[in-house]
Amino acid sequence: MYTREMKFSRLRLLEFFLIGLVMGILEDIIAISLATNETIDLQVIIIAGLVALPFAVISEIVVDLKRFPAWLHNILNKIEGLERRVEDRTD
Fold first, then answer.
1. What is the pTM of this model?
2. Are 20 and 62 in contact (CB under 8 A)?
C-alpha cells in the first residue's frame, strides 16, 4: 500500500522527469536553430523530443537514486585504486 510519502516521491520524480524532458527539447531546438537554417516545425520538435527522451530517463534513473552518491564514491575509489596500481608498476 502506498503511503503519502511514496506518492509524493513518485510525483516529484515525474515532475523532474517532465522538466528535464522539456528542457532537453528546448536545448535541442536552440542547438538546431543555431547550427542549421532548418525551420522549427512539428517534425523538428518531435525529433528533438525523441533525442531528449532517453537522456531524461537516464538522468532520472541514475542521478535521482538515493544510492547515487555512494555508487559514485565507489566508482571513484576504484579509479583511484587503479591509478595507484599503475603508479606502483612504473616505480
1. 0.61
2. no
